[in-house]
Amino acid sequence: MTDLSQIAECEWNEAYRRAVVLRPLFEIQYCSREKAHEAAVELGLSERQVYRLIQRLRESGGELTALLPGGSNGGRGKQRLAAPRENLLRGLIAEIFLTRQKRSAAELVFAIRNQCLKAGLAPPSESTIRRRLKTLSPAEHCQRGEPHPEIKPIYGITPTSDIPLDWLQIDHTPVDLIIVDPVDRSPIGRPWLTVAIDVFSRCIAGFHLSLEAPSATSVGLCLALVASDKAPWLQQRDIEASWPVNGKPRRIGVDNASEFHSLAFERGCAQHGIAIEWRPPGLPHYGGVVERVIGTLMQLVHALPGTTFSNPTQRGGYDSDKTACLTLEELERWFAVAITKYYHLRPHEGMDDDIPLHRYQQGLQSLIAANKTIPIPRDPRTFLIDFLPVVRRSLQRDGITIDHITYYSNALRPWIQLRNQPTPLLIRRDPRDLSRIFVLDEEHNVYLEVPYRMLSRPAISLWEHKLARKRLREQRRTAVDEASLFAAIDEMREIERKAETLTRTARRNRTRRQLGSKLERESSQIENTTSTVDIGPVRPFDDIEAW
What we know:
GO terms for molecular function: nucleic acid binding. The protein is of the alpha+beta class. The chain folds into five domains: 18-65, no CATH class; 81-142, Arc Repressor Mutant, subunit A (Orthogonal Bundle); 165-378, 2-Layer Sandwich (Nucleotidyltransferase, domain 5); 388-449; 460-517, no CATH class. Helices cover 42% and strands 11% of the residues. It has helices at residues 9-27, 33-43, 47-60, 83-97, 105-118, 126-134, 138-142, 216-227, 231-236, 263-271, 288-301, 312-315, 320-323, 328-341, 356-369, 380-385, 413-418, 462-474, 482-524; strands spanning 167-174, 179-180, 187-189, 192-198, 204-210, 251-254, 275-278, 390-393, 400-402, 405-407, 425-428, 436-441, 446-451. Strand 12 and strand 13 (446-451) form a beta hairpin. The chain is globular.
């Protein structure tokens, strides 16, 4: 349970060397004897060791630390427990000992012995458990709220950087707002916001809004927006603004949430030369920049109808569900306007009242003067794919079926004709657009873009897909197929279009009624007077967006 920063460089390099050879074998379902032998020769290991390392990779979810060198016979200071007991020991240390409750080592010993006996395992001795606790890293000690003696307190220090996109901080938060279903406008809950901020300029480099809980996918989609040219993205949303922040960051600072330790995230970053810096537990100043930005954005959200505010005390008797009116798509557009037309143009106290966008542009000029540039992904499509979630499916005669949707391309024909593929295909899917999937061609090391088999189907998001399946279940459909799924989506979109039309008509009629009654009053008592109207101070966003 050693923290990554405590691993010796020579051991880390050896683990990376092993990963280059063994990760391709870990990703396939069956590793043949021939491939295991080739890997063993290249790494200077036995075939048995290769299979053991592949198993460790699978058990850890592909983490690089699973390949750290270490003899199986243990030794002083080494781990000698069998896998079941080792897994149980690690889990209980994390669950019982490494918490803010500061439970004692004696309680941990009792719990481990008890769980081992229940599982039919011989419990480790008390001395073994206590020796293991002495090997905990400084970062792990911080999880108990007891800073390790090696860690010195740091007061009032804010992370800094010298050039644009040298360091990003990424974090998630539930948005303090209830959003509504685009079909019937009923409240559906709070979405999640993932934000990436450039520490140098305090510019927001990218964000992702989703109804799904934070995951490697939401982080990957946020990073994809960070790296891409945002002009087309803004144009698609009918936003006239400048957002010149784009490129690959050199490093990113994140907390220790599971999505930041996923194989997809770690490998995607390694593939594109992005270093990951995990925030040490108990050291909140490492993530202070992005957390302050999130706080600023939530303060702006509190002015929107349907806000939940920061806590029940602030909310009082305000009915968030009843006043909610924004859909996920509308809220995404609102955030884009808030970022590009307000936050980026607002003086920042932490930068001597400099403006984030101005500071970013100054940083770009400094890079140009030094004959340097911010690296841009050579292929934005590949960059996105490397961060998308992975699924595995077998290839059938009619193509590939995922969640009741069938995909097909002529590029799959050679594989279909072979009909002897024992391993499922590795597939990546963009949850924002299910009209295509990316299938890995392992022989040529490229991804094939495979569309719907029925090209007439509309592009849909994973959220729409889940909503359609939910509605079909509510209608007590015993079987869900592709036709019924897209029929439900078409019906939902038609309801949405009619609802929008009716809403616009109702608003126009209400305005006409108000205008008519006003003119009627004015005609009954005409006064030749001129008056001024005090509209009060202009609040932010009054001239930017309104619903």
